[in-house]
Fold:
Amino acid sequence: MISWFRRLLRRRTAPQSAPVRPRSGAEVGEDQSAPTPVTSDVTVTRVAAATAMATPAIAAERIDWTQRWGNRLDQVDDLLKAHPVAAQQPDAAALVQLLRDGPEAVIRQLPTAARQALAFCEDASLSRSQLGAKLGNDPALVQGLLRTANSAAFSAGRAAVLGIDQALDRIGVSGTRAVVLASCVDGLLSHPGGEFNAMAADVWAHMVRTAPLARAMAPAFAAEADEAFAIALLHDIGKLVIFDRISVLRASRRRPITLDASFAHLLLQELHEPIGALAAERWGMGERAANAIGTHHRMMHATQRDSLSEVLFLAERADHAMRRSSPLDLDALWQLGRLTGSPARVATALQQFQHAA
Structure:
């Protein structure tokens, strides 16, 4: 856990070893179906008529994520049967079958100590100093909280904080809970082995980079900045749950898993949203977080007004654009995600974010 926290909040951390790429030039965390229309200097195509693109608010429906997971698995079955390579790989079919065991079996429950640490964050009766004393028993967690508080996302040119009480004051309850939960999840999920370890590291690095971007953009969507940071930090957690199942399959077969890279990409893209939403529910992140994580690609529910989902959608694509040094086309993204926030405020937020970084 300590080694992960050492890289958790270093800006622009990237894994050292290159993963097996699902597609040439693609990142594991990227949505291949969507255009990624910010360079390091934030080249942003401005939206000319944002108000004309705004989507009317529609009441959010209650989403059955377990059913959505099952429906996506059926689609994955069809993709597997039609895949020229994976269809001949027994491990591919075995992994899909393993993912059919359902949320209780597939998504690990947090251990008692982790649930207790999260409960401390929710206990309104605890003062900052009392909360700091309870969380301060874990040196790695203290290190992660201090790095978060002193990162560009939270420090904004202010003096560095050196104590846990000051860190908690600066990052707030949402930020504290996010770091605690990320720590718990990192210790909970198993490493998939082989080339998949580097793929999982790419996903972690992408989530860490996306969190401060989401925090910077949140006001443009009338979303709470610290909440956006907390949810973005784990928005692709469904992919890590899938990697955890690969580790289970590897352990049961006592050998590395053979899985075609392009099919692995399809599997991750199809399943990570509903699995991530169910993980958020299972780990007590709440319905708002689950819905944002489960719809952050803005495909099937793009007509719903969900400020957190919209923030995740745009922050994720901003990170991918930065990684590729390509311009961020707000016009295209506003239409694709049916976004309702302020594009002018997003452009300003990105420029300020880059300046602070």
Observations:
- The chain is about 60% helix and 0% strand.
